[in-house]
Amino acid sequence: MPPERPGDSLLAENPFDLSGHAALVTGASSGLGRRFALTLARAGAKVALAARRGDRLADVAREIEAFDGRAFPVILNVTDPVSVRDAVAAAETELGAITILVNNAGVAGAKPMLEQDEADWDRVIDTNLKGAWLVAQEVARHMIRLGHGGSIVNIASILGLRAASQVAAYGASKAGLIHLTRSMAVELARHDIRVNAIAPGYFDTELNHEFLSSTAGQAMLKSIPQRRFGRPEDLDGALLLLASDASAYMTGGVITVDGGHSVGL
Ligand SMILES: NC(=O)c1ccc[n+]([C@@H]2O[C@H](COP(=O)([O-])OP(=O)(O)OC[C@H]3O[C@@H](n4cnc5c(N)ncnc54)[C@H](OP(=O)(O)O)[C@@H]3O)[C@@H](O)[C@H]2O)c1
Fold it and tell me: Which pLDDT score, from 0 to 100, does residue 264 have?
């Protein structure tokens, strides 16, 4: 028998298995967040489904329970610190220590920068950047207090890496989230908490269905090397990698999932 090398134990098991973990997914009431919740539950995690629309969360919970997964819907407004504290506490009481956070809640808004008013700017920045910070800070405090570490996955965007017109606030919020990912990775590593981001390209969800169906949206397909928009399931691999021990030595990273969109000229 050759001597066992470090990491060999991973080969014997499924490193993407999330049995025994509890996850909190923000923005789980639709689109990518719904898919993230289903994917984590299928991998064995108990999942707290958080957003403002309780009826939609209940639908997702039923989908998870249909394959004997465990789901806990909880109302959350990421822009409200009291709501964040209450939701994280309720999730922990119901499911046990949260070891995975998917910081996914987000809003968009397309307008020329010169026409944006302060309310447009605040809505996007408060949800996508400040909201993500509030939730990550609260969950990280719980992870540190319980001493079990964890993984935080921030859902950024290729618009946080490259600029496009009409989305100044959105792009700034996602660029800020990418840098916040790096800052948190540096500060939280000593607590065994890893922090990474996924930067999706364009996926057809309620967030951008109108734009992607428009002539301008369809024209954009030509600049995507794989010539299609993403499907929520295209994010499964990156999510499971970052949420699980398979990425035990990754922190502060950004994984782009965009059909090659952001590398094209
Ligand atoms: N679709 C894309 O092409 C794309 C590309 C790159 C990145 N993303 C990012 O992916 C994430 C999910 O977007 P999506 O495409 O799945 O859009 P979506 O279907 O519109 O989902 C957005 C989710 O965010 C939640 N949300 C919004 N404001 C919230 C608040 N204040 N508190 C709590 N939850 C809130 C919504 O739930 P409630 O309304 O029920 O609260 C909803 O579940 C966003 O961060 C988005 O920026 C999307």
Answer: 85
